[in-house]
Amino acid sequence: MNKLYGSIPGTQLCAQGPCDSVKVPTLQPRFHSTAQPVVRWHINLWQKFQAYLKLLNTRRIERAAFEQLLKLDDSTLSDIGVSKADVIWASKLPLSQDASKELELIARKYKQHY
């Protein structure tokens, strides 16, 4: 019995076993911190995916506004700085591209020339 308690670091032996003042070290469970970044990585990925879906939805709604632009006459579109062909071209761009910014660039180039 004494050998058992004597083998634990930080213990003292009395004649008949461990003393009352024996401090038995408490074992703290060790957790590997590798699980935390994995969870955060998944959350971060999910948040980026949600933001991308929101962006695509916003651009889809903006593309619906191009239908209104196509209803305008040519003189109004030329006042804006674009033509019907420009609006049709921008409306056929993939959703990953911002069609309204592309139209804005076309309008700026048009205003610089005229």
Pick out its properties.
two-stranded antiparallel ribbon; 4% strand; 5 helices; 114 residues; elongated; mainly alpha
Provide a descriptive summary of the structure in words.
Helices cover 62% and strands 4% of the residues. It contains 5 helices and 2 strands, in the order H-E-E-H-H-H-H. It has helices at 2-6, 35-70, 74-80, 84-91, 99-113, and strands spanning 13-14, 17-18. It has a two-stranded antiparallel ribbon with strand order 1-2. The protein is elongated, with a radius of gyration of 36 Å.
Structural class: mainly alpha
Average per-residue pLDDT, rounded, comes to 76
Q: Would you identify the regions where 5 or more consecutive residues have pLDDT less than 50?
A: none
What is the topology, as strand order, of the major beta sheet?
Answer: 1-2
Summarize the structure.
The protein has 114 residues and is mainly alpha-helical.
Write the layout of secondary structure elements.
Elements: H1 2-6, E1 13-14, E2 17-18, H2 35-70, H3 74-80, H4 84-91, H5 99-113
Antiparallel strand pairs: 1-2
Helix pairs in contact: 2-4, 4-5
